[in-house]
UniProtKB/TrEMBL annotation:
SUPFAM superfamilies the UniProt entry points to: L domain-like, WGR domain-like
PROSITE patterns: LRR (PS51450), WGR (PS51977)
Every WGR domain range: 1-79
Record's protein name: WGR domain protein
Highest taxon, organism lineage: Bacteria
Annotated signal sequence range: none
Database matches in InterPro entries: Leu-rich_rpt (IPR001611), LolB (IPR050458), LRR_dom_sf (IPR032675), WGR_dom_sf (IPR036930), WGR_domain (IPR008893), YehF/YfeS-like_WGR (IPR049809)
Record-linked SMART domains: WGR
Species in which this protein is naturally found: Leptospira interrogans serovar Grippotyphosa str. LT2186
Any single Pfam family the record assigns to this protein: WGR
Amino acid sequence: MNHQLTFKDDKSDKFWNIEVSGNSFTVTYGKTGTSGTSQTKTFETEETCIKEAQKLLSEKLKKGYIEGNIQTSSPKEKTSVQTPNDFHKEWEKIVNSKDLQNDLTKHFSYLADSSGFEPVIRKIFEHTNVVKINGNTLIVEFKNGNTLTAESPGNPSSYKKFPKSFLKLIEKHSTLKTNRLELGKCYFDFDIFDEGDRVYEIFDGKESNVLCPLKFMDNSDWIYHPTEKNKEGEPAIFPIIHELEDEINPVYYNIGSLFLKQLCDEFEIKIEIPVDERPVDPSADLKTNWWSNLSDAWKQAFRNQFENKDKEPTFETILTLERLNLNDSTISDLKPLEALLAEKKFKLEIIRLANTSVSDIAVLAMAKKKLFSVDISGTSVKDVSALKEINFLIANRCTELDFSTVAKLKKLRQLSLQDTKLNDLEFLHDFTELEQLNINGTPLTDEQILKFQIRFQKDRLEKNKTVSYGRDPLKLDIHPEIKDPLLRALADNRDYKPELALETGEKLLAQRAERKDIKQILKDLISICDQQWRKYLYIKTQKVKKIRVL
């Protein structure tokens, strides 16, 4: 069963093909003139496969697709796909062979695509008993009752994204299957991963980037690594084991040899398997030089990220960090982060740069969506436009900050601009995800703050009416409702100094004779102090140093 459909109207010009082979079918679809995207699905029986294929075909015809040949790639392209007569003749020779084990070894020798696997091929097929042909399927039965089925050759043009080592296998058999293994273009459920998972991130969150050439029916799928290579320059492969689905442990065999190794495990064939050798990292010298070229300040800063602060970490060890606390360090620039951020496996989520001499953070744009929280308090940073993807920004005491660059960070959920020159809140009306805002110690007037707050909350209420899950009102860390200057100073007590509370209380008590609101003021004072007391444990005295809990 092979059908080629096309659909064309004012807006679309596309094709949809389905090709059934044994108990599996391959669907290829896309824009006319392109190679399209292919997906293969395998069923328990041929009958079920044909039934599902006919159902899909019927649905497409109902949508307006029509039968018609469509060329999906250049007519000049040539493939080495065998015709039905070619592979059937070859298979029949094997079936009628007087030296079955030897001829099977020759036929499947293409699977030994990594060095040292030739003896493995011979050992496997020493155990064969009989070979049969059923339509377009070659069936190899083993003496212990195991079975290997091999489908007819596939068309490499349907596997455009797959590496060359895989395409060579497809030219011989589109699928190889045992009771537990399947080699071919396998389905992989990318939905098991969420944003932030390691596997999700190395594929940039795109299922179309994932290629699955091997499925182990019990509990794992093998997928190609997007960046790591083996000695032949082909992609490394790593298993997605359902109990450990977010771990990445690549192997460096080509897919044919990996299949042979797994086959030996399943069939309990005892033979020494060639060692899986990781290729020499061509950038190893560069990584070593990277550390050597770091300033003493940066070397110490990296050491401080680990429990053993005296031990020199390796480049690979630093890549495992998800947060960098560089607060109060003596670093002055972020250039050393370039080499780290260029590595896909470096998953930097949080960076703290408070009270450093850093003034340029443009390199952090390389972190893309992985980075979500940044603290630049007390720095001379002016431009934060590189942080468009982050959700949390602390920029307290950044007196040189250009607020037009802050206006570009529309994904912010929490923003702290304490003790800055912020004098306008209008740009924040575009921050639809903002949940918390700290603007203590800015030149903003109470009138500006109240005007902003009223409009922002009104806009949020209107927005909440149109969505399933509305956002909470904005939390504004400022106290425009407190009119008394003494209480206002106390409420804005950024350093949580207990002596300020005592001083305020003494001044208010001194004014009690001429104040009619003294009872309410004292109640407010007690309320504010009650909110603040947990911020410190001990009051500074001659014997006890003050300990703050921030």
